[in-house]
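Data card: per-record layout.
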Amino acid sequence: MVKRYDFLIIGGGVAGMSFALKVARTGKYKIALCCKTTLDEANTAKAQGGIASVTNLLVDDFEKHIHDTMVAGDFISDPDAVRQVVTQAPSQIEELLRWGVNFDKKDDGSFDLHREGGHSEFRILHHADDTGFEIQRGLMAAVRRHPDIEVLENHFAVEIITQHHLGVRITRRTPDIECYGAYILNPDTKKIDTYLARVTLMATGGTGAVYATTTNPDIATGDGIAMVYRAKGKVEGMEFVQFHPTALYNPEETHPAYLITEAMRGYGGILRLPNGEEFMQRYDERLSLAPRDIVARAIDNEMKVHALDHVCLDVTHKDAEETKHHFPNIYQKCLSIGIDITKDYIPVVPCAHYMCGGIKVNLDAETSISRLYAVGECSCTGLHGGNRLASNSLIEAVVYADAAAKHALQVVDKYDFNERVPRWNDDGTMSVEEKVLIAQDIREVGQIMSTYVGIVRSDLRLRRAWERLDLLYEETEDLFRRVKATKDICELRNMINVGYLITRAALERKESIGLHYTIDYPKVKSDK
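The structure for this 528-residue chain is written out next.
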C-alpha cells in the first residue's frame, strides 16, 4: 500500500507533536504522526524534573542560562545553538501554555521555579514531579483534536526512503541525498507500507534501551539515528551518553529504572554512603548540585571503592509534608517498595539516561539529507556539547520544532512526491527459534554496552565492545536479509547500529571531556 502525506512525522513525543501542531496551523496540509507504540508511551512522559527557561527576570537572565549551559557542556557546545534555545525558550513556554500544558504556580500566580544541578538560578518550570507526563498530556489532547493530523499508533518505521531505493549508489560523500518518506510496518496487516512525503521529520527519541539499565522505556532503541546513519546521513557526538546519577536502585526494574529527579537535589537532597557519610566534597565544590557527569562518576567511583551496589540520597532533614507535596509520585513509588523518603534514605544508582549526540542538524533542524529534519533527543543540535544541563532537553525540543516548522513551511510546496519509489519486498518467514535468538541478542547488546561502554571507559573495553558488536551485526544483517521484517529484528538492528556508533565515537575521541571519560586519557579540562 502507498500513502501520501505532505508531512510525515516519525515519533510522538514533545518534539514530534509540537512540530505537527505548528505545521497544522495553516489548515492546508495532510500530516501523519507515526509512533511505534501509543502516544502516551513516548519518553517525554518519563521526564520528571521540568523544563528550563529564564522566567524570573528580577534575578535571572539569558546570559546566566547560556553560561550554565556552556559550563555543563564542557565548553564544546555550539554557542549559536545555545543562544537560540535560551533566548527563544520563554516564547515557547507561552506556546505550551496555550496548548493547555500546566505548570505549578505559587499563591501569587508566579511560577513555582525549581533549581537543578548546574543551574545558577531557580529557572525550572515543573508540574509536581511529573512534568513530562503533563506536557505529553497537554500536547496529546491538542493533537487528537486537530482534524489535519492523522495519528498512526503502533506503526514502526523500518527505513527512510532515498535514491538508494531507486537503484542509485549512495555513499557518505554523496552531496544531494534526498528523503522521499519511509517504509512503515503496519501492525494490522504485518506488511510494510510505502509512505511518500514532501517533508519528513525524525523525532524518535533516545537510545537508552541499548544499555542493560536505563531510565528510558524499552522503545528507546535509537531507531531514528540508526535509520539516518544507514541512509548515509551525518551523525555526531554519540560518545556523549548521559548517565543520570540517581535512578532508584531496584533490581526488579531496569527498563525503565525509576528516575529520582534532579530537582530532589536542588530541593536540598544530600548524597551519602549507606553509612550516612557524605562524599561529594571529594569531587566538586558544588557538592550534590554538581553537573550530572561529575556526580555520576563520583557515585560510580564510590560504589567501586566501597564495593557497593548503590549509594543513597537523603531528604530526611527536610519537612516531611513539603517533601510529599513537591514529590508525590516519588514518595508513593518508594513507599511501594518499603521506603518512606521522609524517614529513610533513598537507594540510588547511575544508569543510562540521555543521548547528547545524534543526527546532526543546523539551526533550522535540517539534517544532511534534503527534505529530512530531526528534532528532539534523536538530533544533535550542538546545545548539549559534552554534557546536557538538566531540564534543557524539553525546551530544546520545542524550540527546534518551531525552527523546523518555520523552515519546512517555506519549502514544502516546491517538493513533489516521488512516484518511482518501489514497494518493500515482504518475502520471508521467521521461525520460533529465530525469535528466541533475537531476544537473546537484544539482551547481549545491553550487557556489552553497560559492561564496556559505560560511565568510565578504556580503549581495551571499547575494542572488546566493538568486536562483539561486529559479530552481532554480521549475524543480524544476514538474518534480516532472509526473514520477513518484524519490529523485534528491526529494533535489534537499530540497537547494534547505535551501539557501534557510540563505541566508535568513544574510540575516536582521545581525551576525557564532558560525559566521555576514559582511563587512557584521564586529563579533564581545568576550566570546568
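Known properties of this structure: The chain has a mean pLDDT of 92. The CA atoms of residues 66 and 83 lie 6 Å apart.

See the next section for split statistics.
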